[in-house]
Amino acid sequence: MCSAPAGSREHVPPRCLFPESKDIGGLNLRKELITVPSCAAHNSGKSSDDEFLMMSLAGIVGNNAIGYRHWTGKVNRAMRRSSYRVLNSTVLKPKRIERLVVKENYFIDAIWGTPDLARLYRCFEQVLRGLYFHDCGQRFEGEIRLIPGFIKHEPGHAHTWQKSIEARYQHEADSMPRLGSNSEVFYYQRFPPDQFGLIGYRLCLYGGVDVYACLIPVTARMPGNLVLR
Ligand SMILES: [Zn+2]
């Protein structure tokens, strides 16, 4: 994240995203977690973001059973401890709570609203810079663009754009290895640099939360019209 001297190591992605074994019937899904060196400021300043990320992701409808059990275990305890303050911070207004009936006598209470995208992007950018360091042994110098595949747009331009990016990544992703030792919780795929020097990453959490990222090194040979804000 910065060039300050590292005094400790930081988990990438944050350790709290990985369920504790007591919540998942004794399974160990915290094997060989990835860590990278971190300065004191970036490590200690991150704990509330880590909790925010955990709350934002673990309970997303469509996740696998591990995500669901993490949600009903550790995440639920953290929510009660904070009197739902952190949960409320994950979704900005407007929001409403709605009971979804899945089938008879089986329902989920869901929060609908607009996620705090700026904060989510910041959290994922830290994860991506950490993974890059883990893969390449040096800091990433450049810009990162993110497409959070788990955010569903209304039909329209954003929706169409997201679908076309996803289709491209998924096509390539089939042939790339899945990295990470606890794939039910988290794995990632890294695509070799393309003709412009751009590096693609795909992250997948709890089997259902997909994030696509494009790393644009300062040295990338970009045609000007491709760099859109
Ligand atoms: Zn730092």
Summarize the structure.
This protein is α+β, with helices and mostly antiparallel strands and 229 residues long. Helices cover 34% and strands 28% of the residues. The chain is built from 6 helices and 9 strands.
Describe the fold and architecture.
34% of the residues lie in helices and 28% in strands. The protein is built from six helices and nine strands, in the order E-E-H-H-H-H-E-E-H-E-H-E-E-E-E. The strands form three sheets. It has a five-stranded antiparallel beta sheet, sandwiched between helices. It is globular, with a radius of gyration of 18 Å. The relative contact order is 0.15. The protein binds zinc ion (ZN). The site of zinc ion has 6 residues, from helix 1.
Features:
single chain, 229 residues, alpha+beta, 2 domains, five-stranded antiparallel β-sheet, two-stranded antiparallel ribbon, 9 strands, binds zinc ion
